[in-house]
Structures are given as C-alpha cells and as structure tokens.
Amino acid sequence: MHVVATAGHVDHGKSTLVRALTGIEPDRWAEERRRGMTIDLGFAWTALPSGRELAFVDVPGHERFVSNMLAGIGPVPAVMMVVAADEGWMPQSAEHLAVIDALGLGHGLLVVTRCDREDPELAIEEAQSEITQTCLGRVEAVAVSGKTGEGIGDLVKALERLVDSLPPPSADGPVRLWIDRAFTIKGMGTVVTGTLPSGTVTIGDELVLIPSGRRVRVRGLESLKRRVDSVSGVARVAMNLKGVELGDVARGMALVTPDRWNSTKTLDVRLRGATAGELARECILHMGSAATAVRVRRLGTDTARLTLSAPLPLRVGDRAIIREPGSRRVAGLTVLDVRPPSLSRRGAAAAAARELAGWPDPPTGGVLLRRHGFLTQDDLTVMGCEPAGQRVSGDWLVDAEHWKSLGAELPRAVSEYAERNPLTPGLPVESARQLLQLPDRRLVEALIRPPLQLKANRIHKTAAAPELPAPVAAAVRRLEEELKSTPFRAPEAGRLAELGLHSKAVIAAARAGALIRLAEGVVLPVSAEDRAVQILSRISQPFTASEARSALDTSRRVVIPLLEYLDGRGHTVRVDSSTRRMRAPGD
After folding, report:
1. In the chain, at which end, N or C, are there fewer CB atoms within 10 A of the end residue's CB?
2. What would be one Gene Ontology cellular-component term for the protein (predicted)?
3. What is the DSSP annotation of 88-117?
4. Is the pTM of this model over 0.90?
5. Domain boundaries along the sequence of the chain
C-alpha cells in the first residue's frame, strides 16, 4: 500500500477529488458535509490499475484547522497539491506548501481542479512557480474536473508514476505509529488508527504507548476495512488494543516498538525556513500527529535547544514543524540530538552553537559519538544512527580522540591521589569513574594500562612498590621485633596503636607488602606466611583449625583468618567443612 495526503486552500475541491478517485466519502462528520468544508482528517482508498492500493489522507484547508492539517500531512511520504482553476493560488495554498517544504517532502503531484469552469493553464503556471522553489521541485501537473470526470484517467496514471517514485519502506524497522483517531467498538474495546510509515505490526505484538509508557497488546488489525493478521508500512492501519481504555489514548500519542525508540523532552535541532529566525520563545512542535508545546532556546543562527512539555519518541534525522501560536510563522526542523548535554555551565550554549554549526544534516553516528564521548551500540541504534567508533568494553563505543585524552588523564589522576593520600595509595575505581565522568566502571577498567594495575578495587602504579613513610616503616620493624620468637601471636588493636600501627598505617603497610593484614585488627609480619607453611607441612594431614592453632602457638582470633589467607594463596586445600591439608605438588 501507499499513502498520499491532499493539500491546498479551503474549498478547492480536495474532498471532491478524493471522492471521484475512490468512490468513498472522506468527510466523516455530518457538519463537514453540511458546510461543504473538511474540518477534520478524512480517509479513503482505491486500487490503481497496476493492482497497488493507494490510500488518501484528506486534510482540511481552512486556516482555523491548521493543527488537523499538520496531523494528516506529518506521517505521509507524498502529497497531492490541489489548486482550483477558477481561483488560482490562495493564502492556504501557500501555507500548506510552506508546511510541505518545512517537512522536506520530496514527492508530490499538482492537481488543478474545476477545469470545466476555467482554463487551467494560468493556475498551473502560477502554482508551478511557487512549488518549484520548494523541496518538491518541479512536479507533474494534471488538470481535472471532479464534476464532469475530465482528466481523472490522466490523474490515475500520474498517481501510478508518483507511487513508482516513492522509496520502498523498511518492513523490518521499528514501529512508530502516530495515532490520528481513537474510538471504541462494542464488544472489541479501544481502536486507534494511523499511518504506519515503516515496520511491521502483527496481532499479538506488544507496543508501548507514548507518552504514558504503558504497554499494550495488539488484539486485532484492519487495513482498508479488511481484517489482517499482519501489516507493513506504508499503510493505513486500525488497531484493536488490549490493556488500554479509550480515555487513555488520543490523537498525537504514538505506539512504538519497545526499547527501540528514545522518548525525549529535550533535543537540539536545526531550523529551516524564512521565518525560522523570528519564532517566539514559546511555540508548538508538530511531529506526526502530535502537537506539543515547546520552549525554544536559540543557540546559533539556525540551531536551537527545544524543551518539550511532554516526551515524544524521536530519532536523529526526524523532520518536524515548529509553529508560533496565533501567527502564520512556521519553520521546519531536523532533529540533531535526542540526548543533548546540559547547558548549565557558563559558555555551554555558545560552545554548543559552534559545535552544531559544523554538523551535517542529519548527523552520523560518528558525529554523535564525538559529542558524547562514549555511547553503547544500543544507544546509537535507538537514537537513529549506525554504530560507529571504537569498541572498548562490552557494547561501549568511544570516540578515539576522547578515549586517548582519558587514557592520558587517568595516570595523572592516580599520581595526584597518591600525593594527597600517602597512607592509602591507589585511586578507587569509583573515584576514577566520577573524576573522568564515565558512565560505567567497565570503561575505567578498560583504560588501565601498564604501568597502572587494578588491585583490590584500586588503581596503582606498578613501576615501583609504594614507598612507606618513615614512621610507618619504623612501626613495622617494631612489630617484627616483637613477634620474632612468637610470629603468630598477633597484637591486639591497643598494642598495634602503641607500636605506631594505627588503622591507616596498617592499610598503607599492607598495600606496600610490608605486612600481612588478615582481618580488621589482625596483622602479622610478611615472614609469617612462609613459617606457617613450613610448620603446617610437618603435622599430620589433614588437620583441623584447632590442630593448626596448637601447632602455630596462636589463638582462634588469628588462626581462622590465617588459614583462609593460606587457602587464598594456594598453600592449603579444604578436605571437608572442618579439615584442610597442605596442597601437594601438581594439585
């Protein structure tokens, strides 16, 4: 299926034309038919001679219903610009064309109606002169009469050629359907409709309703009034939803594939259009069928930071309309970043303006990575970009230059920490993460290269063992002298303090390899390890903790952590819950 929207001035025959092409009345409301004017979106469809199905979204032309018009044009890939031969180019013709240009629609067709009333050539020439100045360029023009049927056959052929020119949508992409109608059907429940631009929806699928974040399940599907099990974009779709009430859905909400879209309230954009520089601070953003209040903060001559009143599922490269309420000023925009960094620092806005000025439209994954420094592969995919950069840990991708600068910063940070904390050398990994402003400790660990090493959750320099301050070294010597004849009778905390080994000194000495810290307040000379191995190797195997305590002439306070230390060092092996043996060669 393909979908085309109508556009043009009020009462120029858009609905009559759609009716002549499809045989379907697009004006759904009695008031529309009574007034002869479309005030809301209408929908109709037909089969082209090639067998391809073509749906029309008929939008209102009156200026009072511009929001409804934007909701209809926003999600579709092509437009049929309608101008009446007897009235020619009119104000709403220009406004609709400005919207088409702002959205960047590149596929269209000019249809001049009422050729039975007036020679269409002047209207065609006038309209083409306006259209060629936009992104549509020079389009094919067809003159028709909805009343007599003249030219309808030529229009059908032109629509076939328009459909041929449309790029094929991706059936495998993530779903984002902007809701344009919501209602209930007795016995079925809530039904929503919209234009599906790409992706595939199947009965039973789970989707997320934005902005509420509620998960819903597709209970039934219709396309062009036919029940289907699955439908792929581009298509007009009606979905019967399970798990949501009518009061919970409305035009402007979106249904999206879970975990595949970035729902955001802050974005950086590039503005386009003659009135882009005149927009007020408070505007309305039109994206798909959504109309959301936004606050505009100008950055550069054509860039801005938008803060939305409600989150929308957006991707880098999305095109939308921004409109000043109560004014005819509209501008187009391209989304540049859906997760922009904060502008709280002094000079941050000016720096962002300089940065964004050089970005391509739309930016690539490499450009986004250069700005953020590091993103996961999923981050870039959800943002709408192909993965780029250097993979360093797990699915983390980094910008090479930023990674290089972090690699130079970490050794300096380790050295500075050691200078400030001589008794506790080794920069904690979490401190390094915060200092380098990294989102994941795995990134810190990936940065560690010789002469740095990770030990006990701290980053050390390994070029030389940490040098002990003289008072701590002297205290260690006093401990060794005291335990010379009884190496396993570890002093209590009070005696350690008397020797000069308060808690920070003990930690520093242990990290320097000058003593063994078995547990809080339990320390032994380094020589105790070899002596314990010698003594325990001579007793009967296996042995209990009590037998080891007796052989080593120590207390239970010391022997339990000492045996666990020997286990960890590979000297002893547990036999069962109560006994150990010395590890034999080849174990």
Report:
1. C
2. cytosol
3. -S-HHHHHHHHHHHHHT---EEEEEE-TTT
4. no
5. 2-165, 176-256, 262-363, 401-461, 470-582
